[in-house]
Every structure is written in C-alpha cells, then in structure tokens.
## 1
Amino acid sequence: MMLSQTEENYLKAIYSLTYTNSNNVSTTLISEAIKTKASSVTDMIQKLAEKDLVHYKKYQGVSLTKIGQKIAVEIVRKHRLWEVFLVNKLNYNWDEVHQMAEQLEHIKSETLIDKLEAFLEFPTHDPHGDPIPDKEGNIKHHNNTMLSSVETGKSCVVIGIKDSSDPFLKFLDKLQIQLGSILKVISKEPFDNSMLVETETASISISNQISKNLFVKKL
Amino acid sequence: MMLSQTEENYLKAIYSLTYTNSNNVSTTLISEAIKTKASSVTDMIQKLAEKDLVHYKKYQGVSLTKIGQKIAVEIVRKHRLWEVFLVNKLNYNWDEVHQMAEQLEHIKSETLIDKLEAFLEFPTHDPHGDPIPDKEGNIKHHNNTMLSSVETGKSCVVIGIKDSSDPFLKFLDKLQIQLGSILKVISKEPFDNSMLVETETASISISNQISKNLFVKKL
DNA sequence: AAATTAATTTAGATAAGTCTAAAAATAAAT
DNA sequence: ATTTATTTTTAGACTTATCTAAATTAATTT
Ligand SMILES: [Mn+2]
Ligand SMILES: [Mn+2]
Ligand SMILES: [Mn+2]
Ligand SMILES: [Mn+2]
C-alpha cells in the first residue's frame, strides 16, 4: 500500500493520540495535533476508512485498524531511529532533531530503515527515551512512573521525557538533567507540588509541571 | 526561498540537461527527463520564471538564473552526499542508492547536509565517481576522457560513470569493473569500435557503448 | 423535555501539479 | 515561398489536500 506523507502523518497522529487520550480519537483532537481544521480531518479519515486503515462511524471518532496500526508503528520506528542517527552520529543535540526526523520518517525504502538500525547497533530507545519498535512492530512501553510520584528520600534514574518539546528539552539542558541522570527527592512542597531534588552536581527546585513530565525508574 | 520537491526536481533536471545538451533546454527534453507531459513543463517553467529561478522566453527554452543554478547545485550536493552515506556507511551497492537519494535530497535543514558531509569525512566524489560540490557550490567537473579515446597499449584508471543507470552499474559489477579499476587497452576493433581490455584479473571485450560511458584518467 | 452550546460533517471554493485536446508558433520539406 | 510536420503553449478538466461557511448531530444546561 502506497501512502502519501499526509496520510502517514494522520495515522501517526491517531496512533499517539490513542495512547495519550481515549481509544476512539475525536476529529478536533486530530485537527489540533496535525494543525488543520476539523473539516479537513473528516475528509481524510473518510479516505483512510475507505482504505481500511481506520475504523470510523460518523460522529464516533476513529481508531486504527490492525493494518493502520502496523503502518503507524513503522513510521514511529523510522522517526526514532533517524533521531538516534542525528544525535549519535551527526552530533545534534536532542532538542534539534525532531523536525528533521519528521521528514526522514517518510523516506520510502524496503531496506533502508533496517540497514540504518544495524548501523546504529540496534538502539532500544531514541534520544528522548522513547522506545524503538522492532522490525515486527513490537514495542515496550515505559512503566509509567513519573518523577512526581517518587517518595521523599528515594532516588531514581531519568529514563524518558513525556513532552519532548524544544523548550522543555532546552530547559532540562539548563538544569543539567539528561537521560540516565540520578535524582534524589529531598523534599516536597504540598502548596504547589514542587519538589527539591538533588542531582549529581546540584540541588534544584522542580515544579510539578516538570516532575509530571519525567519518566523515571526508582532505585 | 521555500521550494516544493517538484520545483527542486525541475531545477535539477534543467541543470543536468544544460550540461548534456544545449545551453537553452527545451520543454520536451525536460518532460522526458522528468516523465511528465510537455504542457505540464510549460506550466512549471512559467512558475519558476515568476520566481526568477529560470530565464524563459516563449518557445525559446529555459536556462537557470544565478540563484536557480545555486539551488540546483545544492540539491546535487545533497543527492551525492546521501549516496556516499548509503554506500559507505549502510553498505549498499552502488546500483541500489539512487532512488533513496532522490528522496533524501529534498530533506530541508540548514545544517544537516554539512553535518553529514563532516561525518563522511568530506568525500570528493559520490559512489559513481561524480564530483560533490562544496558548501559554496564549487564543483570540479571530470576532464572528459572516456575509455573509448584511450590509445592501444595505454593504461588508465576508471574514475567515473557517465550513465549511472541500474542495468549499466550491474553490468560493470559482472565485469568486475569499479571505480579505481586499472584497464589496459590491448586492441581495438575498427568494425564496431569495441576494444579488448585487460583488467587486474581478466581480459574482456568491451563494446563502444560501454567504453563511451566510462570516465578514465590516463596513466 | 426543551433549549442552548459544542462538535462534526457537508458543500463549495482554492492552490499545486498533472493530464488531454486544441490552438499557435517554429522548424523542416517540398 | 508554400505546405507540412513538429514543438510549444493555452484551455479546460482532474486529484489531493486544504479552507470557510453552513447544516447536521450530539452533548450540556436549564
Ligand atoms: Mn521526535
Ligand atoms: Mn523522540
Ligand atoms: Mn544518483
Ligand atoms: Mn551518483
């Protein structure tokens, strides 16, 4: 099946919205994710339903079919492997690679992404800690532990970022927090749910907005 | 200036046709190169003329403007650097990379191609022996010596392929001829302009069609 | 339960890039 | 110098993906 970049982007959007939101994704939600108008989304999902890539009943939102899901995961796989390439091989910072990966994920080739994966020595996670689906589409999701849920006095390792937006990544850079950073929760402030955290090098105050966006593994 | 992939492809086609053909490229020639109808080409070159990327007078064919040429060379640069990546890093054969490079050459980024160039350690030629333009757009063309013009008894090195089509590249593979191969002309057949050539490993007969397509440097 | 609000879909329009068929201009042949 | 053939351009239509505005359906409030 030969899909346009646009169709691929819709599938990818529906895929990730299915995780962050309900199982049946609404038209408006997609339109916000993809920065189009809701009416355009309706057109497209009808087209995708024609191609059996989504389940769609009028006014009921959409969900991916088996094949639609398979394609979406393939695109996610491509996106994340290209991000690894850009960071590990071309020395980009983790906040610089998303836009390029958005383009590279649409390169069509039967073999390219598997060759790239081998060249990168089969990475398991992208530069933002997101898991990379394997060739068959299997993907191991994070165990949803956020920094905000770590008890006072306990330590943890940063293993992923929930919101990988540029400003947030740059902010983490400034705080010298990266994947693998070890954080110890010193105290929590009930007033605004901020916490005092000890890194390898410093003691910093972290707002709830931030601690809710950091995936960690408790130690 | 933000160009579509299609516009970029037209500029690239005009660029290479300017070399292989006359200075003013005809509509039909472009339409054959780009596999569209002549009427579509007319539409597009009028659009490109609007944007000052080509010089165009009705019925007189087109040529690239300074800025149009600059963009065309940038795309050639990207194409060839990606081909080097695919062959040198991902272990593709030289006959497998063109279609992927056709897509990769359109990836938009201010920095990507320069980073890639550095990662590849500043290659001067692509896998088919074609020169890679530098960051400023300077490009050293082959000194047009073809194998067909080498005198009997003389030796030469293969430095490039004129027609880099898949079948031709595969054929060269079979003959065990590659860039850097040293060929000695044993004899020439006046009847069909074929020649008997000695490689490092064997003695082979080479048709004129082939010897006219191999760039060499005389030794 | 009816009225109001919000979300979704339809209808009609637009832009990019392509096509076919017809018209106009150029080139080649008589 | 005409006629004929070829090339190029125009005109009108189609497809994909988008938009605005209007109509419809669903959800919320009163
Ligand atoms: Mn990304
Ligand atoms: Mn990522
Ligand atoms: Mn190529
Ligand atoms: Mn090449």
## 2
Amino acid sequence: MTELLKILQKIMPKEMSALSRRYTLLHTIRLFQPIGRRLLSQKMRISEKVIRTDTELLKSEGLIDIVFAGMTLTEEGARVLDSLQELMRPLEELDKVREGVQTLLESQELYVVPGDSQNNQEAFKELGKEAARVLLEHLQGKSTVAITGGSTIRKVVEAIPFQKAPSPFPKLMVVPARGSLGNNAKIQANNLVAKMAERLQCRYRLLNLPDNLSRKSLDSVSQEPEIKEVFSLIRNADIVLFGIGIAERMVERRNLEPSVMEEIREKRAVAEVLGHYFDGQGNIVSTSCSIGLRLHELEQGGGYPIAVAGGADKAEAILAVRKYLRRGALVIDEGAAKRILALAAGSKTL
Amino acid sequence: MTELLKILQKIMPKEMSALSRRYTLLHTIRLFQPIGRRLLSQKMRISEKVIRTDTELLKSEGLIDIVFAGMTLTEEGARVLDSLQELMRPLEELDKVREGVQTLLESQELYVVPGDSQNNQEAFKELGKEAARVLLEHLQGKSTVAITGGSTIRKVVEAIPFQKAPSPFPKLMVVPARGSLGNNAKIQANNLVAKMAERLQCRYRLLNLPDNLSRKSLDSVSQEPEIKEVFSLIRNADIVLFGIGIAERMVERRNLEPSVMEEIREKRAVAEVLGHYFDGQGNIVSTSCSIGLRLHELEQGGGYPIAVAGGADKAEAILAVRKYLRRGALVIDEGAAKRILALAAGSKTL
DNA sequence: CTAATAGGGACTTTTTAAGGCCCGGAAGCG
DNA sequence: CGCTTCCGGGCCTTAAAAAGTCCCTATTAG
C-alpha cells in the first residue's frame, strides 16, 4: 500500500498534493460538521477559494452535502474517507514523525523521506534525491558550494541530474569543505567535488593535500597561494553541504592510528561533522588534522548549511550535534527520525 | 485494489485521467523504445505537446531516459510501470470489455460502468449515476424528455441531483413515454416523471390512463384533447430515456393474463422495450396495449435515445434489441457487458 | 549527399485556478 | 426587534499553467 503511494507520488507529484488536501478537507469536515468555507479555510490555513473549488468538486461527486448551515459528509463521503484513511496512514504517520523531530531539533528546514537508509539501498537513494532537490533549490544565485565526503554526500551528488550546456549556473563553483579524508577515493570530497561540478556544468577547485599532516607542514602548506585561494573560497561558501558521521565508524574508515580510536572511545565521541568529533552532549572532543572549514565558522557564518544523514544508526550522532543543525536545512530519513524520537523519549524518562 | 481506484476516481477525477495517460505513455514507450514524441503522439492519438509535458515530467522523475535516438524506460521506470499495471488492470480490463461491446453493438455512445447490478446494489446505483450524467449532458437546449418506468430508470431518476431554483432548464418538459404499466407505483413512468421534474425543477405532464385498455376505448381516449396534447409532446420528444426489460419478468410484473405469458413463451420473446416484446432475433412478437411512443418512431425519429440496462441477466435482452441501440446512447454495466461478449462468442461458434 | 526523425527552444493562445469582493439569507443574542 | 455572525453563492479580475504552433539543430539510414 505504501508502495503504491510512492508510485503515485512519482507519476503525478502535483496531483498528489490535491489528494492529500482533499483528504484533509474531508477529515476536517467530519470533525466539525456542519462547517462553512471560512472556518475551514482558517482551520486548514488554505485560501477560501481553494476550499471552495474542492468542496464544489466533492459535492458534485456526492461526498458532501452543502446546506445553509454548512457542509456535512454524506454516507458515501464517510465511507470514502475511511478508505482514504487507510491509504494515507503512512503519509500521515511520516508527517507526525516529521513534526516530532521538528519540535525537538528546531531546524530551520527539515525534510524527512520515507524508509531507512541503514538497511534499504532504495531509501538511501531517495535520501540523496531529496537532498539534491534541496540543494538545487538553494542554488539560485549562490556562487560557491562547499561539500564534504562520505557515502551519504556521494548519494546526494549522484542524485543531481546532469545539467545541459550552456551551464544554468555559470558562476557556480564547487569546492571541498575540507582536505581529503579517508582512503576510499570514491567517497573523498575531492572526487565528489569533481563529480558534482560535472553534473552541474560548473567550475570547481580541489584541495589536494595528503591526509593527517603534521601541524607544522600544515601551517606551511596553508601559506601556499593556491591553497590560500581555495581556503578563501571555502570560508566564503554560500552553501555548505555535509554529512553527519558516526564517530567510531569514521575513525575506522580514515585508517587513523589506534591511539586516536582510544581517544574517541575514552571521550565517548559519538558524532563526526566536518572533521570534528562530538560527545553525546555536543561538545567537541577532538578535531582531525585535516584542514578546511571549521564548525564555528559554519555556526555563525553566512554559508547556508545543508546537513544530510540517513539510517537509524545515525540518530545518536544527529542528536549529539543538534545545536549545530538549527541553522540551515536538515535532510534525514524515516529510520533516523523515528530513532531520534525514541532516543529523546528515552533520555527524558531517565 | 479496485476499490482504491474508484475512490481515487471519486476524489480526483481530473487527475486520474492524467494518471492513466501517463501510464499508457510509459507502456507505449516500453513497447516501442526507443521512440520519439511524434511517433508516440501518433500512436496514442494525443497532441505532441501533451506528450512532451508528460515526458518531461517522467524524465525529471527519472522514469525515462531521453537521448537523441528517442525515449527509453529506466530500470526504475520499468518497476513503476509494473506496479502501475497491477493497479490499472481492472480499469484496462473494463476498457477492453467496452471496446468489445462497442464493436459488437456499434452504439453511437456506449458507457460501461464497473460492477454488476444484478447482485450489487452499489453497482446498480452507479449505473443510474452514469446514465443521469449522460442525460444531463444531452439536456442542454433540449426541451422535452420522455421516460419509461422500471426499476432501472428509477435509479437514473434518483441519481439526478436536485437543481436549484431558478431552474437551469426553464423550458424543459418531462413526459412519460407510454401510458402507465404495471402495478408498482414506485416504478411507474408517471411517478418517475414527477420525481424527475421535481429534481430538474421543470414542468411535466402525465398520462393517467388505466392499464390494458381495450382497443376501442383506447381509440376513443386518444381523441381527448388533453391526451392528444401529451401525445404530441411524446412524439416530438428530444430525448427518450428508456430501460431494457426481460420479457418474462415484465409480463409477471405487469400482472397480465396467463394467455399473454403463454404467448410470450411460445414466441420465445426475450426482451421488452417501450411496450414491445422481442424475440432473440429482434423481431417484434407482441405489443402491449398501452399507448405512447412507438419503437419505429424512435428508430427514425429525432428524439435522442438513451437506453439503460444493467446486470448480466439483461445481456440476452440487450443483444436481442441491438439493432435499435445503434442510434443514441447505451449505458450498461460490466456484468451485462461481459455476458454480452460471452453470449456473442457462444453464438458465433454455434 | 539528402531526407527523415530525433529533442528542444521560443512564442502565442487557450484554459483553468486562484484571489477578492459583495450579496442575501438564516441563526443566535442582547 | 435589530444587530452581528455565520452560511453558500455569484461575479469579476488576475495569475499561472497547459496546449498549440513553428522552427531549430543534430544524428543517422539510405
């Protein structure tokens, strides 16, 4: 049943909003019948005219009665509403989950896609698509996008449709948010930058630095004119697209020394964002030696953050860095959202 | 599943046509891929622009690929199409049934509604609704409607929505197509005429004649000025709405003498339309003594016929009078339609 | 080469949705 | 009683989407 909804959503996205609107309309009418257009329009926060158009349709289909006192459901309308309720349940539930997470995290923009990326590749793909959509929406007029690496961001990049020449974003520039991390080339920021630029038909700059430089060579390299230029782009990025990682998993992936892992464990780091490790309270407990965008710059800076994370196992990490997610957009999936709510409920009762 | 379709059809009728169009589009693309817009537009008999709008939507959803050679389904598109096929099957099947009956009966207008009125009251109601819709569609500008009695026409009348004063059909006049028949007042033509006029907010005239008059008194009554006036209205009716009856059942219902029943049986009458009884070949074998519209008048006359019949058991009767159904609209249900096809196939092999 | 077919862009016309406003009627209330 | 506050419905204007039309370039089969 939920399968069907997704397909309908795919094949007639616009029309589906009419469906849910009319469903809510029927629902509200049942709740308050008899009720008139004005009140309905207030309660549903929809313009009166739209209510009117819809009610006229529903009346002509014999689902509602319209008399002087207001509108009421007919028997058939009640039956239809019941059947619709079955159909819409997953959609409504997802919306409730979204609401719950929204009040908890207070994100500026929150998107929750169905499914759980942890054990469903399809869902992971959809997460990427949604994030790509959000990104493209914010791209208008912006000129610099900084992105991190990671398998999640990779999904986002792969979900960006190829744009045609001539470029619709002629002034766009994509840069990695930080120096390269990890050894899996496919999910390195540099690689993703190139891929994204290819899809967006725009320019890009890379940060070709070896991993885990010493403090000293890091400082000296930072003085290189070319590097400095990229740094300046990064610091002035208009959009920062990043994933939220699970601390331990990131350490493993980056092939760091055992000592680092010990540190992570000892300090109970759970989340990783932009090279910083966080404990459950959101305190930075460690920062990897790569270079690039710093968190506090993101916190107050003008760059618009777009955070993406999917899968129930990411819930703890998302909660840990919640205070950094209030600005900007957050794109998660149902699995993560539900676990977030469960964890929050649990910690409240403790 | 078929339930769901009906509900969607109810709550978003316009949008559903887009759904079936896009479904057919995907289907056709799969069949002929790679294929271009022009060819598609030819094959589907849809303007090229519509194809273009739809394909752009489908492409943006990633269901099809568009390359120089034409359009092809993506993997996801194929999956979506398969799932849609499940959903659309009942709809497609009904359409095929309709096509089959259409080629068989060659009706000017043929409507087939889902379900079987014989054993489903809901379906019977829907049949009435569809017929009412057809009637209202043809009402524009027309001034006289003649209707018969019968439970089917009763359903049609009851499905006509109440119109508001001032009457949208000020010049409309409803008359019974024939004198009263049968003893069940609720389904007598006179009664239905009054009900219909009430709903349409229009004038009406009745034919208050006793049943089964002798030839002689019939002739004399026919000379009455008032009766003559109604006759003239009937003869010049712009629309004739009538049901198709099963001969034996009609005889029973009309409480006719046993001799009549014997005659019906002897001459193998199967159908009854407008007071005439027909055998399986469509020959008139008997005519009841009531008065009013004659069949041959309908056959060549200017009045637009709207015939309504539902239920598998009506199939034989419908087939018997098929030659009278080519002009005008025919509204039947799935049950009748399927039986019609089965009977036709059977008689062909004999 | 040419002719045919592909997608795509640009423009106009048509249709439909939305917005906004006002009207008369029924019900509740001082 | 008169007042306000609901109600649906009519009507006109504006805005946006869909459809229709025409023309363009690229690719490929013959």
